[in-house]
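Following up on my earlier thread - several people asked me to post the actual chain instead of describing it. Fair enough. Here it is, all 134 residues.
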Amino acid sequence: MGNYNRVVLMGNLVKDPELKTTNGGKQVVNFTIAVNRRWNGPEGQESEEVSYIDCEAWSGQAKVISDYFAKGRPILVEGRLKQDRWEKDDKKYSRLVVVVENFHFVDSKKTISETIPASAGNADDMTDEEFDAI
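Reply from S.P.:
Thanks for posting it. Predicted structure:
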């Protein structure tokens, strides 16, 4: 049986995205979204749970997310899970990160969304000229 690794999440950014450039010249943006889950307990009491999910996007998508998203703004991301592993002070650490393959604007900031090409959510479909025009 094959494996399948797909994530779809919608939440709000908990801080402004951080855009960086790798030594190889590629751009990457790191951001965290808060995803809320609400439900009613057995006795009708309302409960809420918040999950904070780290995300990263590359190349053209990194630039668009960095330019048009900020703390508090909602975003829908689609992608895959990646496990980062590292060592520090002889301790091993790991965390799951969503590698964004596609994203969508979900709020109604028309002045911004009208300036973004429909394909901006998928960097693979955009040319460098389209990104430069944003």
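The first helix runs from residue 59 to 68. That should answer part of your original question.
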